[in-house]
């Protein structure tokens, strides 16, 4: 009599552990990220292509949403922006207040992600993929995987930009 009961308990324990493994960790995206490469479905004007990339910080807000703090150079000035991204029903998709959909794509390369952004701009759909890493060091394997992702999303490789890494945005 004990054996079937133990088997049922063991199976339910295994099932609950598998369910826990299937849930994404809350802090998977939290921390400092470096943009290693960027590609879009449309050709970016030279003035909009990032020449330098600065670290961005992602902070968990505790309700499944995140706050993203980023810096970028625009019109010869350092700009800082904070964006809140809200989790959707899909645990890897988020929505911004500007109606952008951001998908966090995990990679096989450790400490790398792809941020895939889709939004409407001037009546056109704009799709942007960003290769993100926990450190500023180059990783050829991550770049190769990013190029495969670009191909799967029909983002032309010739539109890819690899900005210089910089620690701080200074005007």
Could you describe the 3D structure shown?
With 171 residues, the protein is α+β, with helices and mostly antiparallel strands. The chain contains 2 helices and 10 strands, in the order αβββββββββαβ. The strands form 2 sheets. It has an 8-stranded antiparallel barrel with strand order 1-3-4-5-6-7-8-9. Strands 2-10 form a two-stranded parallel sheet. Strand 5 (77-87) and strand 6 (93-96) form a beta hairpin. The radius of gyration is 19 Å and the shape is globular. Residues 1-26 have low confidence and may be disordered.
Order of helices and strands: HEEEEEEEEEHE
| Class per helix and strand makeup | alpha+beta
Uncertain stretches: 1-26
Q: What is the 3D shape?
A: globular
For the biggest sheet, the summary is:
8 strands, antiparallel, barrel
Quaternary organisation of the protein chains:
single chain
Gyration radius (Cα, Å) is: 19 Å
Number of beta strands: 10
Q: Whole-Å distance between the termini?
A: 75 Å
Keywords:
171 residues; alpha+beta; 8-stranded antiparallel β-barrel; 2 helices; 10 strands; globular; disordered N terminus
List the helices and strands and how they pair.
Elements lengths: L1 H21 L8 E10 L11 E2 L2 E5 L5 E9 L2 E11 L5 E4 L4 E6 L5 E10 L2 E10 L6 H13 L11 E2 L6
Parallel strand pairs: 2-10
Antiparallel strand pairs: 1-3, 1-9, 3-4, 4-5, 5-6, 6-7, 7-8, 8-9
Summarize the structure in short.
The chain is α+β, with helices and mostly antiparallel strands and 171 residues long. 20% of the residues lie in helices and 40% in strands.
């Amino acid at each position: 009599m004990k054996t079937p009961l133990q088997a049922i308990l063991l199976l339910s324990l295994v099932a609950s552990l598998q369910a826990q493994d299937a849930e994404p960790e809350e802090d998977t995206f939290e921390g400092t990220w470096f943009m290693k490469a960027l590609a879009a479905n449309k050709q970016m004007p030279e003035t909009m292509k990032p020449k330098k990339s600065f670290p961005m910080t992602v902070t968990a807000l505790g309700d499944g949403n995140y706050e993203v703090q980023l810096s970028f150079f625009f019109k010869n000035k350092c700009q800082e922006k904070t964006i809140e991204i809200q989790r959707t029903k899909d645990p890897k998709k988020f929505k911004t207040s500007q109606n952008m959909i951001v998908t966090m794509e995990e990679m096989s390369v450790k400490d790398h992600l792809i941020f895939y952004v889709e939004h409407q701009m001037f009546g056109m759909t704009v799709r942007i993929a960003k290769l993100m890493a926990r450190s500023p060091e180059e990783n050829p394997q991550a770049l190769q995987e990013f190029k495969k992702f670009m191909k799967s999303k029909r983002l032309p490789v010739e539109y890819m930009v690899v900005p210089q890494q910089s620690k701080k945005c200074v005007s």
